[in-house]
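Colleagues,

Please find the record for the three-part complex below.
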Amino acid sequence: MRRTSATTRPRFIAEPDPPRQAPVLVPISQPVPGPVSAPGIDAREPRLRSRDSLLLHQLIRDQRFRSRYHSQLAAAGPEGRAVLDEPSGVLSTQAPAAAPGSPEEAKSREHRVRERGFDSADGEPRALDLDEATVDSPWGPLILLASPDGLLRVRFGDHPSRGSLSRVPESPPVRPVPDLDELTRGFQRAPTQSSAHLRAACDQLREYIEHSRERFELALDLAPIGAYHRAVLAKLSHIRYGHTISFSELAAAAGRPRAARAAGAACARNPLPIVLACHRVILSDGTLGGHVAGPDIKHALLTHEGVFGK
DNA sequence: CCCCTTACACGT
DNA sequence: ACGTGTAAGGGG
């Protein structure tokens, strides 16, 4: 089994003075006192999202959906508008067949809302309220995307050449994410609420970079994900600045002590790196483990937080 | 089947 | 002690 982060590191442990026998490293099962750092993910049940948010998640996540959407849009012509027409994700440029106000229409509408949390058949023109910005960081440019519900995505820019990072043998496994322009093609962009979330995220990220902030207090717009992955991401916000835990500890905190690997998979899909501190989760033997932006970025983030300091 | 794991087993 | 291999492991 090859491992990209096989570099041997000095053991760095979550607590400055770890107990000898019962190594409970960080009590992340109990939230640390103070304001909740990521209110958006502490909701027990995923709330019903705005239809823009849901459509956006579809567009970001599903390549096939995206292609279909764009081809439909192209077929509709310059004045046309693509509509996500029904629960199975069929796109159409036509108005819904059912007459407005009819029982049939109400039923299918309710079905749509229940199945996808998203009603697109109202036939109204829509404007996507999204906003995007780039924050320069010691780890390369960070691209932030926000929706009216909160911060949607943090993406490491694809600039691996920066200081020592240029010597990374394999290119960092940055997943391709469509640009905002591509996502919003065919929509009228109307940044309003999203801009406020974006502003807050940019400010707090800059403060984090300048060492004047250790906790993020942001609304987050998480994609609809499974309960366990959601729980894992939620626990990430309880790991204190400058501390680390292992994947198995994270898995236990999320309620499945033996699901360490699943916890890793959840971290691998973390849409909000840095804000949700997946970089503070390491292997149980003290080595780094993986990271979306590569092990060197992970190491740099932990160094930034003083993990290797003393 | 894939994935940012873990424990354990052998080889240096 | 360190590196590598292997199987079990849970969720999507």
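DSSP finds nine helices and nine strands in chain A.

Comments are welcome before we finalize the supplementary table.
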